[in-house]
Prior knowledge:
40% of the residues lie in helices and 18% in strands. By secondary structure, it is an alpha+beta fold. It has 3 domains: 8-289, no CATH class; 296-413, no CATH class; 423-481, Arc Repressor Mutant, subunit A (Orthogonal Bundle), CATH 1.10.10.410. Strands 1, 2, 5, 6, 7, 10, 11, 12, 13 and 14 form a 10-stranded mixed beta sheet that branches. It has a 3-stranded antiparallel beta sheet with strand order 4-3-15, with no helix packed on it. Strands 8-9 form a two-stranded antiparallel ribbon. The termini are far apart.
Amino acid sequence: MTDPDGQVIVGLEVHCQLDTKSKLFCGCSTDYRNDGPNTHVCPICLGLPGAMPALNKKAIEYAMKVAKALNCEIVNEAEFSRKNYFYPDLDKAYQITQYDKPLAEGGYLEIESDEGGEKKVRLTRIHVEEDPGRLVHMGNAERGKYSLVDYNRAGIPLIEIVSEPDMRSPKEARKFLNKLRATLEYLSVFDSEKEGSLRVDANISIKGSERVEVKNITSYKGVEKALTFEVTRQKNLIRRGQKIDRETRHYLEARGVTQSARSKEQEHDYRYFPEPDLRPLRVKSWVDSIVLPELPDARRERFMKQYGCSLSHARTLTGELKLANFFEQVVREDPHGLSPLAATWIADTLIGELNYRDMSLDRVDPAAMTGLVRLLKAGTITDKSGVEVMRVMLDQRLKGEAAETPDAIVKRLGLTKSAGDDGALIAAIEEAVNENPKALEDYRNGEGKALNFLVGQVMKKTRGKADPAILNTMLAEALKKRGV
Ligand code: ZN
Ligand code: MN
């Protein structure tokens, strides 16, 4: 019997949209966002009889960049094939894809493993193909259901990246996708904010059991959730002595569950054959002329060397192109002086505050962030006030209010750190001690926690402005004066 606590095995097939201006085999624009359905179509992408496809060179260049960045072997001769099946979103009744001669084979992507450290996830292949159209389901039970078809997406260039089953948890699958997205963004071949730009099919099994395919997951978070659901479902079946069926399942995003789908076509049902309207693709000599930019791993190493970032900060900061650029902009004027604080305040604090507000980094002004880091570095404000200033900055942006500089916020809210001779701080300490005889008594009896309590009380009274180091010294003195 299979062990319910057995090894989880995950492999992914990822469809990524290449961010070209025109479609894969015709001149139709891929930017249909502001236009109605079926406005970006022509005889080629509508699959009308006699229309001849012409390959988009840019799409192949982008695909090769990806293949090279992912350490793949680019083949001597790639070939397009027709994958035949009937579905209303597929106007030609076949998809032009690559089958037995994909553009690239092998390769790997390095991720942070669950055990810590880097691990290589091997890739099987990368091939180029066109996207089908899109069905929009309308109507309701009373008035009748119907579907509309929109071919604006038909012919959009995709690459399909197939991994080996090298991931060992839903979390590793998420890390693979994050790293893949970062790599594609660094290559400038991909826009992760476009709808449908990344779709995932995941294979998952418990060692010794049949594998299950979860189809068409459309969000990054969805992949981890769908796989976590599957791990629990499959382990429960094994525990009850039941067998896991080899099947295709769909992920229902809204409910967070997977559901058994129709039985999948077998490969031979597709009657693949070479696309007669396109010549084989020989790109080997082209590969060498493709120059890659700095990729996430190299940038991570550089952040550690150049800015003294910790591994985990460097990982976070370089994990997204925008974030890495933002960090470098913030510290540009004084990399040596600002980097240590900027790394923490961006990687730890800012990201948390942005997530909390569901706010994009685009809306944060790097100059304002530099200003905040400078105030912290100069010791003008405490860490606690730093967070307050950041919150005000973000909320002003979010509400579209006039943005104040960090200096102005500090002044307006009176957040300048109290110095040791600050009368307000001395008064706050006196008050806190006088108001809490019980804490004083506890402290006298050797309860260290009582001191923390008093520190907290003073902080409250000074609204977080007190420098913790100074406060501790002064509090200790005040207690000594009372013979504690
Ligand atoms: Zn077209
Ligand atoms: Mn595909």
